[in-house]
Design a protein that fits this description.
Elements: H1 2-19, E1 26-28, E2 41-43, E3 54-56, E4 69-74, E5 81-85, E6 90-92, E7 103-104, E8 107-112, E9 119-122, H2 151-161, H3 168-173, H4 188-196, H5 198-201, E10 208-214, E11 219-224, E12 231-236, E13 246-248
Parallel strand pairs: 1-2, 3-4
Antiparallel strand pairs: 4-5, 5-6, 7-8, 8-9, 9-13, 10-11, 11-12
Length: about 250
């Protein structure tokens, strides 16, 4: 009986130790040395490295925490390699300088935020036709964003109410160009910024372009590219206009 009790005690103790959270500093090595006082985790080796998760950029974690590291093996927006999530977006390690007019990420950089590490990229060409905005009899909740950074939200809101193939938001959402699939229809302020930087992007027609910003039930905001300063107005969602898609980085 005493032997049985001893056995049960050992089983319970092992279970508790197995489920107990690790505390203190940790050193992984072959010499039994303690970790450096400044490190929670120290790995020592003379001939081995640390292997991070190796994944396609399109399969990256959607709800990443700041500081998360991955090694991208395919579809990296700035080439494959080591990427870190900085709380806003994914940055490639050792890629520190972006500039307006840079050909990268499937198009041309036309906007940079104050960090200089994130911004907007325009496709290098218009889509090869004229397109409707669509849903001229519907109000589209969430598609009234005007500012820089709202185009993707507007586009998603349009598609949620108006999933008609071939409308302006849809052709951007389904676009694959430059190796990227995350294109969207720009908001009116994003489209205005595209206009301002059209000389470094190139390929524009002297015509009206759709934004993703709804103005009213029958209308949406548009920008004319053949005059200076740009003519910003709105028109019926049933008009056929040019489309230039953009993406974030």
């Amino acid at each position: 009986m005493k032997t049985l009790y001893h056995f049960l005690f050992i089983v319970v103790l092992m279970h508790l130790l197995y489920n107990m959270p690790a505390v203190g500093q940790v050193s992984i090595n072959n010499d039994g040395s303690a970790p450096d006082s400044s490190a929670m985790l120290e790995i020592k080796s003379e001939n081995k490295g640390l292997l991070l998760p190796r994944i396609d950029y399109n399969n990256r974690p959607l709800n990443a925490t700041t500081g998360l590291l991955i090694y991208v093996t395919a579809n990296g927006p700035f080439g494959n390699g080591l990427y870190i999530f900085d709380g806003v977006g994914w940055l490639k390690i050792n890629t520190s300088t972006y500039y307006l007019g840079q050909h990268v990420g499937g198009g041309v950089v036309f906007y940079l935020d104050p960090s200089g590490q994130h911004g907007l990229i325009a496709s290098e060409t218009d889509l090869p036709d004229y397109y409707l905005y669509g849903c001229d009899t519907d109000t589209i909740p969430g598609a009234n964003g005007t500012a820089l950074g709202t185009g993707a939200t507007n586009t998603a809101a349009i598609l949620a109410v108006c999933p008609t193939p071939g409308i302006a938001a849809s052709v951007c959402d389904t676009l694959t160009t430059g190796g990227f699939t995350d294109w969207f229809l720009p908001s009116v302020d994003e489209l205005d910024s595209v206009y301002v930087h059209q000389s470094i992007i190139g390929g524009f027609a002297p015509f009206w372009y759709w934004s993703s910003t709804e103005q009213s039930i029958p209308g949406a905001w548009i920008v004319e590219f053949d005059i200076e300063p740009p003519n910003v107005g709105w028109t019926s969602k049933n008009s056929y206009l040019n489309v230039r898609c953009i993406r974030k980085f």
